[in-house]
Amino acid sequence: MSVEVGTGERQGGGGGLQEVLRRTAEGLGVVLPEPDGELSAIARYGDEESGRRVTVRPPYDQSWGSRFLSVYPTGEQCGGFWTALQSCGVLMAGGWVTEPAEVVRATAAWMSGAGLGETKVLAPGIEYRPWAVEHEQEPLDAVELVWHIKLDRFHTSSWGRLPRTHALLVAAHAQPALRRLTPITSHFNVWFSTRIAFFQNRQAGFGHWAGQVGYGLFPHDERLYGVRRRDGELVARTETPEEAVALLVAALPDRS
Question: Which InterPro entries match (predicted)?
Answer without folding.
Answer: DUF6193
